Amino acid sequence: MKVKLLAVIFLILLPVYAFSQDVLLTAKIEDVAVALDKNGKQYVRFIVNEERTLAGIAYEVGVPVMAFGSQVKEAKALKKGEILKAICDKREKAGRTSYIILKIIR
User: Residue 83: CB partners within 8 Å, gap ≥ 6?
Assistant: First the structure.
């Protein structure tokens, strides 16, 4: 009985957790912001556009791309309008996509 209950709870909570995968992202930077996290360390947030299709209708949506830790110095050198090329951890949660930069490629 306990095993069945745990299995049901697991299956209910499974969609709540974010899934991720490593991808090569190449996109034009639409916006750049440098900010401090709760520990006072800098991070960089880019917004890039991503094409999507819904019911045969194509549209673009702004997607956040975050740089933390060792990637911040190189990310701060990138400006709005430049092309960002990076290996990223792509995350999807509740239908929303975001990226965390693992390595910027020059």
Answer: 26, 27, 28, 29
